Amino acid sequence: MKTKNNQKYEVFGTINLPISIEVECSNMEEAIYHAQVKLDELGIKAIKLQITTINEQLITPKVHDFEVQVERAFEL
Q1: Which of 31, 43, 50, 59 is the most buried (most CB within 10 A)?
Q2: What is the tally of structural domains in the chain?
Q3: 40 within domain boundaries
Q4: Does residue 39 fall inside a structural domain?
């Protein structure tokens, strides 16, 4: 019986992942500014992502690129 040789493939996709961070500031504009400084793309060395499926399987995809966009702030 002939055995089939499996090949490895690298499959690319995109995950849109809204995030939030907490900052302490005197007003909303200052909070947005401080978040932008903390999340500045040039200051981020690495982004690590781990996904847990409903079957408890861990998937650790490679992050090839990222874009940071600070959009709004809410008072806690």
Answers
A1: 31
A2: 1
A3: yes
A4: yes
